[in-house]
Specification:
Blueprint (H helix, E strand, L loop, with lengths): L21 H5 L1 H5 L11 H30 L3 H25 L4 H5 L14 H10 L14 H11 L4 H11 L21 H12 L5 H32 L11 H7 L6 H9 L1
Helix pairs in contact: 3-4, 3-6, 3-8, 4-10, 6-7, 9-12, 10-11
């Protein structure tokens, strides 16, 4: 019979009295004590952890999108490709989270839904930040955050600057493409209107990918991101309908009806329309 394995004999650190441990570095005490169910329902813990982990992934997505935007702005396209690939993979992870939440039945959710009050994912400022950064801008959606001036300031700071898609379009202009009215935009707060000149520019890129490889690659990274983002929205709709049907959301939205409207939103419209014209 073999002797029990002793990691200390191979040099593993055992004593952490004066050293930083894994738990110290990750602040696990705060993270693992951040779950405070308001009911005795078994499934409320699932609901809390699913949303908390989603917010952590969204925090990383914001970090990566912001870095990608700065890289594109300074013509460093290759690093931006890595960042945008990571954002797409983050949304792949967020999609998988719905599979866990869907193990909860309507009866189980009903057992603690009243404890949520008016709290709702609709009020997630990080989700709003991602939409604003990507280009879906609606200043009216700042209102749910007016009670927290620090968060409102962060969202306002996003709205006064070009979005991720704006940066991609401006990159095209810096490299000799005609982008029409987008070249004269100064008010970034509103969602931009589709532009035939931008569509023509992307068409030129896609018709000669070898000549315009870096812009072609950027376009595909953006489409990949939106592809996974759309899947996340679709999975959100089906999960909500599976658990609460057509009832109104806790935050007062029309629930599934509202979420279905969001499925129609295109973040990078010309990149989808160009496919029809090739």
């Amino acid at each position: 019979m073999s002797k029990p394995y002793d990691p200390a004999k191979e040099g593993a650190q055992i004593s952490f009295e004066d050293r930083m441990s894994y738990s110290d570095y990750l602040h696990l005490e705060q993270v693992l004590n951040a779950q405070a169910p308001l009911s005795s329902a078994h499934d409320e813990m699932l609901f809390i952890i699913q949303h908390q982990t989603s917010e952590l992934w969204m925090k990383l997505a914001i970090h990566e999108i912001g870095s990608a935007m700065r890289a594109i702005r300074t013509d460093q396209l290759e690093p931006s490709f890595k960042m945008l690939t990571r954002v797409a993979r983050i949304f792949e992870q967020l999609n998988s989270a719905w599979d866990v939440l869907r193990t909860m039945t309507p009866s189980e959710y009903t057992s603690f839904r009243d404890a949520l009050g008016q709290s709702s994912g609709f009020q997630s400022w990080q989700y709003r930040a991602i939409e604003f950064m990507a280009g879906n801008r609606n200043p009216a959606l700042l209102r749910p955050h007016e009670h927290q001036p620090d968060l409102l300031e962060k969202l306002e700071a996003i709205l006064i600057k070009p979005s991720l898609y704006d940066e991609a379009i401006l990159l095209l202009e810096r490299n000799g493409f005609d982008i029409g009215a987008d070249a004269k935009r100064t008010d970034w707060r509103e969602t931009r209107k589709e532009n035939e000149a931008v569509l023509a520019a992307w068409r030129a890129v896609y018709r000669e990918p070898q000549r315009h490889w870096m812009f072609y690659e950027l376009a595909e990274k953006l489409v990949d991101f939106e592809d996974y983002f759309r899947r996340w929205r679709f999975n959100h709709v089906t999960t909500v309908e599976r658990i609460i049907g057509m009832k109104r959301g806790t935050g007062g939205t029309s629930g599934v009806t509202y979420l279905r409207k969001m499925l129609e939103v295109e973040l990078f419209p010309e990149l989808w329309k160009v496919r029809t014209q090739l």
